[in-house]
Amino acid sequence: MKKFLPILLLAFVGLFIFSCKDDDTDYDTYSQSKDVVGSFTSSNSYAFTQGIAIQGTDVVLVYRYLGDSWQLIPKMMYLPDATGMPTNREFQYNFVFDTNNVQISIDDQNFNLATGFTSAEATQYLNNQRFRIVLVPASAGKNANVNYEDYNSVIKYYNIDESKIQTIKVN
């Protein structure tokens, strides 16, 4: 009996050691963020692309920098009437993504982007626009405690260190 008990204990412990799954091929995304700066022009079809690496189930959030705050896109922009410009001008900052890329674009609703802005508006809405791409793992799920419209809430909840955010110039 003295020999049988240690063997049984060893077999029991061995069962648990080998049944635990240590799978390093999980590939789960960790929360991360990067800044992308670029200008929307007719030569880039009012869009630019940034590479990412995520699982197909992960979440991508994109925010546009407004100088003192971040605004979640897609976002419809309504321009005031201006002399010599079409009336009721509107466009939308938008994005699409897959597991390898995020494409940020401007979708024009009712005017030609090449001629529909005053020079001040072009500077404000097209030139050197800064976007923050936030990658959120699917394992975190859509959490009711996070207001995704509020950039600061997202950064706090997912513990993203803003001092480590890389800025990439795309054009």
Automatic annotation (TrEMBL):
List the signal peptide residues.
1-22
Keywords attached to this Swiss-Prot or TrEMBL record, sorted alphabetically, are:
Signal
On the tree of life, the source organism's domain of life is Bacteria
Q: What is this protein called?
A: Uncharacterized protein
Q: Which organism is it from?
A: Chryseobacterium taichungense
